[in-house]
User: What shape does this take?
Amino acid sequence: TDDMYGIPLISAITVETSKPSSALSPLPGISSGSPAIKPVTLQYIKDEEYKPALEKLKHIIYTYKNEMPELSEPEIPSGYFGPGYNFKGTQEAVYAATYLYRNGPECGAKIADSGTRCASSIARKQTVHYTFGIGIWREEPSFSIYGNLQNWFRLYREKSPGNFPGAGEAWSRGIGELTREAMALGYSKYINSYTDWLDSCLFADAYPPHWIRIVGAGSSYEGHETRKVGEITETGNRENDGHGICMWGRYLNYHWLGHPAQWNEKHWKATKAAVSWIQWQLDTDTIFPGLRKDLLYTESECGNYEFYGSYNCLHGIRLSIIMARELGKKEEVASWTKLYDRLEKGILENAVDSGMFGPVWHTEPDHNWHDDAQKMAHIQLASDGITYTPLQDYDVAGSNARKYLNIDLNSYRYLMRDKNYNCLRSYGYGQGLMTQAALLLDEMTDAENFINLMVTHCYLPRLEGWTAPEGIILHRSGEYWVPVNGYLGQDSHLADSQKALRLMFGLDDNNPENLRIIPRYPVSWNEMSISNIPVLTGNARQNIKYSYLREDAKQVFSFELEKPVKNMSVRLGPIPDSREIKNATFNGKPLFFENQASGDSRWVWMKNLNGRTGKVVIYYQ
Assistant: This one.
């Protein structure tokens, strides 16, 4: 803080009294031996003789900017399996690929037959919890379940569903994000047994059935409440942000499995109960919490009436309606649609503040995550089940989607009013979520700045290397940093920073009948390729790989799938301000293209492509 910067801090005080005091514990007896005391003189301080030792200590505690390695190729963990990444053009591009190689598998390591707590399941070491103070740095054993990443690689392959236990607990706020990232990258072997466990906890942990803060903890969770609401004895806690996150996370599992009717039917009881919990809260809110408003009251870290808690549930309802419709549940589709409309309207009426740029989404200052990036949840969650182009697809005249979009844009302007890209103290809630918002709004200058800070400050060589901590405290000089909460790989911080980089790939398979590829890489990167990443086409997933080159006279995009597709669209860009597109080709033949201005950039669309392989080239004048 500015008030304390540069001022010596007192960490302890010993009080001596002339008379014994009942309020103070007696000091221990003084040793009879001569103490080994080195006197510190004023001259010693004046001459700054302490500095070499202090600098040595600082280089143990902190990561320094000049420690960052020079990489020409990404570092790949030993034993690695999964997608491939190769990005060129800047050092940050190589760091980003290195980050993905390390943290994609860690997301996979969070999915077993049951939850794996909120901290890393594979980290070998950590520092003490941040509540003990930044001044304390002590290496301790981690809460690791699988020992290290290499052991998890082995166990993942050797074990089978039902024989790969977790810890039996997970924080609901991270469950959806982690299952999403594990599934998106193909680490899906245990997703069904994990979802079975998640559904069982819905009914076992609380009543009426809902997901609480620590799924699987039941009444042992310290925030567990018991209260009378009308004729019902409610138990658990109202972790509505986490509850909604579990809802939409389950849908994404169902979606990427290819919408199997048998899966949907098996999990229908939990799907229905999850939506019923939201309906019940709105219908009994005059009893608890005692206020009549169509907005969900949320306990725990999320503010009581914040936009974030209610919107996650709204998104969960929207995707649950799809599941109900595909099972032919007409009654539930009708009632859930009414509930959706009610909560959607209630959010507009009760979760909006006036701001310098117009109406913005409400977050409570005493209950937020430092940077208010959760104001952008409507945009961030668009890619999770709906669209990768919310600016265009939500801009529907007269709709609530457009009203939400206008508030999104105001909220983004408010959050970016100082052009401060350092949200690192919350790695997922801050840096990850703001990066997602910038990418999905096509604000590519902002996105590049957010990405650069993220991938250069995840390097913790004395802990786990290229990692996703709960947060980073960056010294104002920019020369060194230290992790908040001592690495630990906190669930949603890991997942939302991972998603921020995955969004760059642009693999939009929300509509399996029309695969859309919308890459959003920083402008300074000129060569990008990915491989072995699953995408949903039709009712099954297949792996895709592509390469994307940006050259002075043209851009070249080449793709390869395992099976041909009938309908695919590709959007390339940004297009340099100084260039105009002369023509485009697909496999050497002329191709119709559409120019688009979106965010701070220009783009070009090529639609109605098909086949198993293809090469799109756009030429500049």
User: Anything to note?
Assistant: The first helix runs from residue 42 to 46.
